[in-house]
Amino acid sequence: MDHFLYHNGVLHAEGVPITEIAAAVGTPFYVYSAATLARHYGLLAEALAGLPHLICYSVKANGNLAVLKVLGDLGAGMDVVSGGEYLRARAAGVPGSRIVFSGVGKTRGELRLTLEGGIRQFNVESEPELRALSEIAAGMGLRAPVALRVNPDVDAKTHEKIATGKSENKFGIPIAKARAVYAEAAALPGIEVVGVDVHIGSQLTDLAPFRAAFEKVAELTRTLRADGHAISRLDLGGGLGIPYTRSNEAPPLPHDYGQVIRETVGNLGCEIEIEPGRFIAGNAGLLVASVIWLKEGEGRRFLIVDAAMNDLARPSMYGAHHDIVPVLEAAPGLEHGLYDVVGPVCETGDTFARARALPEMGEGALLAFRSAGAYGAVMASEYNTRPLVPEVLVRGDHFAVIRARPSFDEILGRDTIPEWL
Questions:
Q1: Model pLDDT for residues 95-150, shown as the tens digit of each residue
Q2: How many folded domains does the chain comprise?
Q3: pTM, full prediction
Q4: Which residues form the domain of 61?
C-alpha cells in the first residue's frame, strides 16, 4: 500500500494534490510520501518483533537527507556503501553507532573517515580490505568491528545486474574460504570480529533463495563459534522485492520474510541486521512529468514527455517496468490508446514504455510514474545538460522541496575554461 490515491479525480500524495505541486515546482519532479516510508519501515519492524534487530536502511536506494531523517527518527540504522553516503547519514542525524559500511571497493580514505566519525561495523568483502582496515585502525589505537561478507553461491533469481550472491559475482568472500579468513581476522591487531554478513541480490520475489542463503549462514555461524569466534550479529542484507505493477505481481510479505529469518537463524541468539532499501522507498515515490507532444509515427503513437532516461534510468538500464498513470483520473469508460512513452533525450533507449494503454491526453497533461522512490533520483544525471530533477517530500497536507532544480547558470558554473584556451 502507498499513499498516492485519487481524490475528486486528482491524484494526491497523502493530502496534497499532485497538480498543486506541479504548479509550484514545475515538471518533471520526484515526490515522496513520509507516511509510506514510515509504513514500510513499520511492517519490517513488526516482522522482526521479538528478535533483537536493527533495520539499516540502504542509503543507495534514495539518499535524500529528508528521507534519511524520516527513517532515522523512527530508529532506523543506515547501510552505506561510500564515504559520501556515510556523511549523508550523519548529516541526517543518524549516529555512527547505527551505521553499517558495506561495499566491495572501500578506499583507505573512506575507512579512516568512518573510523574517525564512528561506525557500527564494517562489512568486509576481501582479504586486502581486511588487512588495510586493521592497519589503519591499529594506527589510530582502535579495533574496527567487522562482519565478513560471505558469498553463499545462491542464485537469487533476479535480474543479472542486481544479483550479488553467485560465485561469479564480485561481492564477498567465497563461503568455502570463510573459516580461513575469519582466523586471519581474529589474529589482526586492529580487528574485532562481531558477525557474519550476506547479501544475495535485489528485487527478490521468492523466499526460497533467502532461505537457502540464511541456512548456509546459520551453518557457518555454528562452525565459526566452534572455532572460537564470538559471532553476535548476523547481517542478512536486503533484497525483498516490491510490486512494480498493480496487476499480477505478488512479492513475499514482510511477515513471511520475517518467518524465514526466525526459522533459519532465529535460534542462534544473534542480533539480526537487515538492509532494506527498495522495500522502504520504492513505492513511496512518484516521478511526475508533463506531455510535450503527441507524435504520430508509422504504426505507432509516441507520447513525448519532459522526463527522460537521465531522470529515471531503470527502464533503459534494466528494461524495468513502471506503471504510468494520468494525474487527472480518466473518466469511467473512456477509451484508451496504445502509446510508446518516451523522453526527449537523443537516444532510442530513452523509452519508458512501449504500447502502453493510456487514456487520450494532450500537450501539458500530467503523468505519474509509480514506484519511483528507489533508484530514481539517486541514479539521475545531467546528460544532455538537463538539470537534475527536484525532489519533494509530503507529510499530511504539507509539502516541501527537499532538493531544488539547479539553474543553467549553476550547471555551467561548475565547468572551468583554462586561461590558455
A1: 999 999 999 999 999 999 999 999 999 999 999 999 999 999 999 999 999 999 99
A2: 2
A3: 0.94
A4: 34-280
| Cβ pair 137, 113 in contact under 8 A | no
* H-helix or E-strand spanning residue 12: strand 10-13
Which candidate in 49, 331, 346, 412 is catalytic?
Answer: 346
Q: What is the DSSP string of 211-274?
A: HHHHHHHHHHHHHHHHTT----EEE----B---SSSSS--PPPHHHHHHHHHHHHTTS-PEEEE
Burial (CB count within 10 angstroms: exposed 0-12, middle 13-18, buried 19+), residue 162? middle
Q: Read out DSSP for 355-401?
A: EEEEE---TT-EEEESS-SSSSGGG---GGGPPPPPEEEEETTEEEE
Cell numbers for 384 = 544532455
Q: Which residues contact 209 (CB under 8 A, 6 or more apart)?
A: 154, 155, 156, 157, 165, 200, 201
CATH number, position 367: 2.40.37.10
pLDDT at 160 over 60: no
Q: How deeply is 246 buried, as exposed, middle or buried, from its count of CB atoms within 10 A (0-12, 13-18, 19+)?
A: exposed
Residue 346 known to be catalytic: yes
